[in-house]
Amino acid sequence: MTRHEGDEKRRRDDAGRPALSENDPRLEPARLDTERRLLDRTWANGRGLIAWISDTDHKAIGRRFLVTAFGFFTLGGILAGLMRIQLARPENTFLNPDLYNQIFTMHGTTMMFLFAVPVVLAMGVYLVPLMVGARAIAFPRMLNYGYWMFLFGGIFLYVMFFLNTGPDAGWFSYPPLAGPEFGYGKRSDVWAQLITFTEVSGLIVATCLVCTIFKLRTPGMSLNRMPLFVWAMLIVSFMVIFAMPSIVISSTCLILDRLVSTHIYNQAEGGDPILWQHLFWFFGHPEVYIIFLPALGMMSEVIATFSRRRVFGYIEMVLSMAATAFIGFGVWVHHMFTTGLPQFGQSFFTAASIMIVVPTSIQIFNWIATLWTARRLRLATPFLYMASFFFVFIIGGLTGVMLASVPLDRQVHDTYFVVAHFHYVLIGGSTFPLLGGLFFWFPKMTGRMMSERLGQASFWLLFVGFNLTFFPMHLLGLEGMPRRVYTYQAAMGWERLNLLATLGAAIIFVALVVYLINILVSLRHGAVAGDNPWGASTLEWATSSPPPPYNFSPQPTVASREPLWHTELTPPPIVGLDPSKREVLVTYLLDAEPDHRYPMPGPSLWPFLAAIATSGMFVWSIFQAQGVVWGSIPIFVTLVGWFWPTKGKKALQHGVHGRLALGDSLS
Amino acid sequence: MPHFQSILHPAGIQAARVSHLWWVMFWICAAVWCAVALGAAIAIARGHRGTSMASERQLGTSVAIAGGISVVALVALLFQSVVTGRALDTLHSPDALVITVTGNQWWWDVQYDHPVPSLRVTTANEIHIPVGRPVRFNLFSNDVIHSLWIPNLQGKIDLVPGRLNELWLRADRPGVFRGQCAEFCGLQHAKMALVVVAEPSDDFERWLAGNRAPAPAPITPEQQRGKDVVERGPCAMCHNIAGTQAGGRSAPDLTHVATRSTIGAGSLPNTRGYLAGWIADPQHVKPGNRMPPPGLRDEELQAVLAYLETLK
Amino acid sequence: MTHLREGYGGRGPVALDVSALPNYAFGHRSLMWWATACMMVIEGMVFAMIVMSYIYLKGRVPHWPPSGPPPDLRWGTVNTAILLASCLPNALAKKAAERFDLTKVRLWLVVCLVFAAAFNAVRFVEFSALNVRWDSNGYGSIVWVLLGFHTTHVLTDFLDSSVLTALALFGPMEAHKFVDVSENALYWYFVVLSWLPIYAVIYFAPRIV
Q: CB A53: neighbour CB atoms within 10 A?
């Protein structure tokens, strides 16, 4: 035994060990039933508005995140529809330029910050604790706070938009246009503060996911037995943690330039508007991989399930996602190829931007290999959404390689070619898999199956509508149509393709309405789903649909990467977690051996109150600098209330060795 | 579809190099897409039948080969891109024509440089260049970030306040091309275009010489009246007409406005009717632009139009 | 759940009994450590990006500072000394927490707070000794942003340490609250260590380079 192993063993010996117990009476059906009733009581959330607000169940919060994100998706889609109506004809007067500029800014901002990132994090919030066999997510009250910050940020943005103070400088808000001299009123401040709301929310969710994945995996789930979706969420969480600080800085400095006359982006006084672009895109490029990687994880889970075999090349899949994430931090300058930066530096970013295709292509080939050797592949709706990736996303990926080339980028940058590219990669690479994933996990979340017929209809409508909308945009860009223009002249000859794109947008709208109808109808009348209607292999399918608040009883352990496909290897489930407290099992990082029990905090109103206080401070501080100081006082008060422990808890448990009498409170 | 603002119809060497790069990349990418789409389609068909007997090792080899081919394709694309980039840089020449373009919200100030100050030319929103001679643009901005883009001739470069950026191009055939601002610069970004006329050297020199002269003197009384209105009214506060008392610098130079084919930075054709509408109410055509309605009476407007028509 | 109970090989249902495990753990075994670690990375990246912006802006102008003297060394150095000295009571508080020694925890947390209060008071003076305003020029702006973010960082840590101290003095202290004290001490080390490169940048970058 090495010294390290010896230390570990000594630590475990000192503190009490997990033990295998044969013929354990606690696994008898009657005892399990009693325990489940106790767990039902302990983990119950209560009814009523306050209980709903205070809920710390990751599944409830995850569902809330999903519904809210899709709400913003709808708003963003309506905004896109308005843009398409305006652009359907040359010199159209449906929208005036000011409204159009606000609308395209709101569309991009909504889709990127209020839909694309929150929705993939939401899937993680819902699925990750289930997939790793945990009873809860780490830091559930902080997660609750993160949700309210997301919601309040979005509400703030839209209220300001309806007050004609919506941001109007594009979703990436370049100064000097967004700066104090040319950005009128509070519009760009609203944008910058929305960023702060969503970044706080994102960073919180990322922290919860990292802690859950590292420390709450059920025994037996060593790192090499984690599902690929969990790996994707782990890598994405690290990307969030490393990338978001950059936009926190840049947006804060923009507010400071506008509010208190700093000169960070003011070239006349020693600042530089290009600094904004560096800081923004250092975040902005990893942001799109944050949106993309969870979809890759969902692809793997659905493809494996429908192929009835594990995804080919597990290690390569993990390393590919990690490599994509890592390289993704080194390509940001490809958004700045037209700013006049030195050519030598630009070549490095061309090479990196081309190289990043390699890990993704490895993933694609591994999926193809998986499908090739599938055992009677089911072509149901979730699979269709995943399969479309091979036809849709790849177009976007290849136009991305084109954009990586400096000479070509200097022609097509800021044209509809780029608009086509990013919609192909974002919708083809993330939204299609997301819709497939939602269809796939809908039975687990709600206990009902979605309608296969409506699913097929909405899929084909979306496939056709999407391509009809965005494929012509490649040609529009090549024929000279720039981005972010509220109108164009008839003489340019762009009318027919624009009309086609608008028609496609109408079809997309119908497709999404059908999908929504499917959801609403299935909630009421869908076929009742059992635990594992698709025959999948991962742990979330080892419990009821929907799962109880405590996820599992008893908590299963695993001995393979596909626990539900290898029931002959059934390892012993967990007993001994106290059902009268919300106890979860914390394990060691590498091998997931049991370490200690941790009492999770229950529902609390404080996170909601803290979010209100924080929102108040954020909104105040874009109008008055002193808002930062005075607005912090309510935040401090709510945080104290949140972290102050409630009286009457037993202070120390049996099993603690220390200098205090067991069971005494210390107050 | 007309092709006077098109990447795929190059009229100069820089755009031609990029257009060539585009087609190389397009065909390679199309081939890759077809291969992957075909592979995926076959895999789905096979998987649906469920009869594949391929071993894990065979799959591994196939993936490795596919990965290898991808890397080769990507390297080829990278190589082609670097070669094109290098070629684009070779246009530097000591006898280039030097033009300084300054971006404003939402128009282009154009200055033809010359060591002798009296031989410099200032105009706006329309650029003439001689065919076959390299042109170097020095690019500045007076306010926000803009981007000069003439797709038939060259890729774009941003006009960044506080920086000097350079753009090199050369027209290889005569023609009239359109460029447009390609970095969102505010309310009227959509209507910040410019006209680029590539013409034979002689024609160009004639145009340049004509533009060096100050504004011609008015002949008829109506034209004289128009000149008076321009000099004494609001026009002179922003616009410059060389040789008159209109010396404003914050709006397009109007000394030879009658030679230009468009007004409002490419928003409207430069005909009497459109010009009348523009002057009477600039906010109607290009809402939010910096020109306020000058509040001219009808006969003043007619006089101004008559005078402007003489500014050739 | 029945499919998980197959295949026991005739031994009857076997369970993994975890009831003997403790309900707390220190260091990287605890959830709080990992959350603190994430927080440290986030804040570290924030400081790194501001420092990168400082370096970037410095490269754009010929003189740095563009006008006026660099920040006075005195108060920044005094504060650095205070921060470094605060590591001692911090270490003692951490050790006491890991021994569940409540008396010592209370003592050393209060001492730490005194150091933190002193630091914040001197920081107030430090701002006025920077010899430049935030709205003078790009240099002034980025220096104030850098020092300002660090101050927010220290101030919030001071506030949450005082809540923890109040809890230790007056509230019910459970096992995992001792873990919180230990993690808070770890975070304080980060606060001290992350100050050192910022101190170097603000006070020495304009003098040396």
A: 16
